[in-house]
Specification:
The complex is a heterodimer of chains A (408) and B (104). Chain A is of the alpha/beta class and 408 residues long. Helices cover 23% and strands 30% of the residues of chain A. In chain B, the strands form three sheets. Chain B has a four-stranded antiparallel beta sheet, with no helix packed on it. Chain B has a three-stranded antiparallel beta sheet with strand order 1-10-9, with no helix packed on it. Classes of the chains: A alpha/beta (408), B mainly beta (104).
Chain lengths: 408, 104
Amino acid sequence: MAHFVILGAGECGARAAFALREKGFDGEITLVGAETLHPYERPPLSKAAAADASDPKFIAAAEKYAESGIRLMTGLEAKNFDTASRTVTLSDGTALSYDKLLLATGASARSFPGAPANSPHIRSLRTHHDAAALRDVMKPGRHIAIIGGGFIGLELAATARLHGADVIVIEGLERVLKRGVPEEIAYLLTERHRAEGVDIRCGVSIETLTEEGGKAVIKLSTGEAIAADLALVGIGARPNVDIAERAGLAIDNGIAVDSHLQTSAPDVFAAGDCCSFPLSIYGGRRVRLESWRNAQEQGTLAAANMLVLDEAVSSVPWFWSDQYDLTLQISGLAEGAVTHQRRELGAGAFILFHLDAGGRLIAASGIGPGNAVARDIRLAEMLIAAGARPDPAALAASDIKLKSLLAA
Amino acid sequence: MSGNWIEVCGKDEIDEEDVIRFDHGGRTFAVYRSPDDEYFATDGLCTHEHIHLADGLVMDEIIECPKHNGRFNYKTGEAKGAPVCVNLKTYPVRIEGDTVFIAV
């Protein structure tokens, strides 16, 4: 009986395991995860889960794994795999032979250079355990310094303010969300955070991050020192490629895979945050995406290709972020855009449609209260996938339904 | 299900291939109009994270949740794959004159 092994029991790995069964695979499936918890969803970690003591939002009930014939091995890390003997070695010494292997190893939070490791006052956020450690500072009178004005940092800033903590965000670049978010939207979010009482400082570099007297101490290049009950380091993530590197696989900003998620080794696949892949709708440009939906879709796609190599990556990248009552959604990659059209959706919500030099819609970025932008961002995603060159005036005209452009 | 017939709205208050939210008795429903002018009703909240489905996109007999793209067949309530696995309840719809009623 064939044995498929999946390393990494996050969104991507768990979805792949279930997708194998849904697609009819009747061999053995082993899903290996380093955390002791059953697979859970990560988006809530920077939102509600950082402030309340609820259980993680599990991807599936515990009994569902046994019912589906998925052997879930938690609390174990894969140390090595050998592509010649087709064997994976786990941290407890267990050896698993595989017919096909999926690497869904995810990404790890980058640490701040020179900062002490394992300080209770200097943390990052990647796991439910990390989120739980933040809870006792999400309170009035407590001071949180967030290093990095990316999605994780800003979502945590919003959560911390909603629970009454004092928050400062320190961003080295001239504005927050510099990567992938248009300036108009970043400006709106910055103003909203400031209105909520967050002290956002951009263009400020940090000289040292240390722990002194039960506090995190951040020394800025301006000479100012900031003491906080907690410094949360949110300066991005690096793909977990070590095991793939040791096995001799090609690495290129993540484990390099082709459009079918096949690595450079036979019968070894990689999916989700850990891999970079060519994206055909952007001319085969190689990208690596750290997003919930990408992890989910690539898990399913990897499952299909582990069974029969016939499904190529074709989806449009999509991200979202919740901060206060605002939701930001972005579809596509705006890099390469030369112009944009703005569509007003009422109640302060708007979407920017990004067009390339040929008039092709390549991305859409929207923000507004609740789910005000969701439907139109979804339609924009379909237009992007279709390679549409919509009339710019129609994109900006709120009274013209985007659905009608899709049909055109 | 016999239920009580509750007036929702006028027929034309729902666009073709679209959905509206309808609240009644502390509950939320989603009421749909198909491209061929049929009407359907389901629970109004996604079974994944309780997001209002009426903010989502209706296309090809599918309602897609605006938050995490959970998909359901709005005629049958069937969940169409991750991240949703629990079906939506559906409710009978009746048209009287120009008015839409659902049985709840």
